[in-house]
Amino acid sequence: MSKGRDLDLLKKGNKKEIEKFILDFYPMVQQIVGKKISSTTEVEDHTQEIFLRILEKESLKKFQGQSEGELRSYVIRIAINYMADHFSRLRKTEDKVDYLDFTLPELADKLVSPSNPEKEFLKQMEIENLYNAIRQLPQHLQQLMEYRLLGFNNKEIAAFMNVPHGTINTWAARAFEKLSRIIKE
């Protein structure tokens, strides 16, 4: 991230600030998109579309934050909302869309250690059950659980999902309750 970014110049469309902005944030947005879509070409297309949305629809002029962190959160929120809109449009044309940003092998890589084959197998089965249970949750709870598994706290998740912190606490309780019921079945 560039230090000393002039947010006022960026909002006014200063070419150098826009170039710095794109260079700084492009990899992060690309990573967000890449977690949802596996095709490299589609990742590039969607990433570019997100930046066009930010720059052409004057989203930056609407940004009211004053810090680099607030700008980062703002860009993350736009990228996540764009991807949610994308999958929402797909859902209207397809029967089922998987809203999870990670695959079962990716989840297993994060949670399994290869020290004991029997433990690894049992852990893999638990992870598979968890993954399948999460896929049965409503979209917003899938998103919440994904953020939790990626290590974000409820306050950060509230900012990403653009809902109050208390709502995230309630959703988390509901998600764990539903997951518990699904896994017991």
Any overview of this molecule?
- The protein is mostly helical and 185 residues long.
- It folds into two domains: 7-93, RNA polymerase sigma factor, region 2, helix turn helix motif (Rna Polymerase Sigma Factor, Chain: A, Orthogonal Bundle); 104-184, Winged helix-like DNA-binding domain superfamily/Winged helix DNA-binding domain (Arc Repressor Mutant, subunit A, Orthogonal Bundle).
- 76% of the residues lie in helices and 0% in strands.
- The protein has ten helices and no strands.
- The chain has helices at residues 7-11, 15-36, 40-56, 59-62, 68-93, 104-111, 117-135, 139-149, 154-161, 165-184.
- The protein is elongated, with a radius of gyration of 19 Å.
- The N and C termini lie far apart (47 Å).
Short description:
The protein is mainly alpha-helical and 185 residues long. Helix content is 76%, strand content 0%.
Distinctive features:
mainly alpha, Arc Repressor Mutant, subunit A, elongated
Q: Please name the fourth-level CATH homologous superfamily of the largest domain.
A: RNA polymerase sigma factor, region 2, helix turn helix motif
Total of DSSP H or I helical runs spanning 4+ residues: 10
Shape: elongated
Domains counted in the coordinates: how many? 2
Radius of gyration: 19 Å
Strand residue content: under 5%
- Summarize model confidence as the mean pLDDT: 78
Return the string of H and E elements.
HHHHHHHHHH
